[in-house]
Each structure stands twice: as structure tokens, then as C-alpha cells.
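R.M. (postdoc): so does anyone remember the format we settled on? I'll just put the C-alpha cells first.
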């Protein structure tokens, strides 16, 4: 009787542990997918804004709309919860996101002109975030 109860208890513990591992893996894959989408969106945004800025004739309204869109995208990303395995990467991305939001807020408040966007670390912050892509993709493969 004690052996049977012990085996049942052991089986239950193993099953519950396995479920936890499966759930953590699912969360990690979901996080990696969300983060990859976020990084791809930031990269596309950066290329598009650089193209507009380098055209010579800056369409302020167009850039303001794109900044508002990316501000919302950053806010959405900042609200997701990172799995334990990705906390370091996530925190680094959040630091860069704060720099991006700070620049966007300066533009929205009139403290910084859109024409001066290239003089800020805005695109460097985006580049810093895109450098995490390999690490994020490794999360999906582990």
C-alpha cells in the first residue's frame, strides 16, 4: 500500500513538473515570436524614417504619424511579460525603448524638431534592439 501510494505521489510530481516545463517552453516561444515581430517592425520603421529624412524634403506629418504608431507599438511590447530565460534580454530592450520614447516625447512636446531626429541616438537605439535578434531566435530553438 505504501509502495503504491509512493509511486502514485512520485508519478504526480513528475507529471506536474513536466507540465510546468511545457508551459514555460510555450511562454518562451510566444515571447520570442512577439519580440521578433517587434524588432522587425522597429527595423522597418527605422528604414522608412531614414528614407524620408534622406529625401531632402521632410514630410513632418508623415513622420509624426509613424512616430505615434511606433510609440504605441513600444508601449504594447513594454507591457508583455518575459519568461525567466529572457528577462535579461527583455530588460535591455526596455532600456532602449525608454530612450526611443524619450526622443518621441521630446518631438511631441516641441523640444526637438523632427528635422533633428538624425542628430539623436534614436536610430542607434533601434540598432541596439535589432542586435538582440539572434538571441531571441535562439530562445525559439532551445
Amino acid at each position: 500500500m505504501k509502495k503504491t501510494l509512493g509511486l502514485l505521489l512520485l508519478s504526480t510530481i513528475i507529471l506536474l513538473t513536466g507540465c510546468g516545463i511545457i508551459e514555460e517552453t510555450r511562454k518562451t516561444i510566444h515571447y520570442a515570436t512577439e519580440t521578433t515581430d517587434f524588432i522587425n517592425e522597429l527595423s522597418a520603421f527605422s528604414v522608412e524614417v531614414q528614407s524620408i529624412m534622406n529625401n531632402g524634403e521632410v514630410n513632418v506629418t508623415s513622420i509624426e504619424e509613424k512616430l505615434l504608431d511606433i510609440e504605441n507599438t513600444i508601449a504594447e511590447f513594454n507591457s508583455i511579460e518575459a519568461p525567466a530565460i529572457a528577462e535579461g534580454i527583455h530588460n535591455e530592450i526596455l532600456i532602449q525603448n525608454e530612450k526611443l520614447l524619450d526622443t518621441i516625447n521630446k518631438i511631441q512636446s516641441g523640444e526637438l524638431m523632427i528635422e533633428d531626429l538624425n542628430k539623436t541616438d534614436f536610430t542607434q537605439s533601434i540598432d541596439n534592439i535589432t542586435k538582440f535578434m539572434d538571441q531571441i531566435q535562439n530562445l525559439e530553438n532551445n
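R.M.: ...and that's the designed sequence above, right after the C-alpha cells. Also worth knowing: Residues 2-54 form the longest helix (53 residues). The helical segments are 2-54, 60-78, 87-109, 122-130, 133-141.
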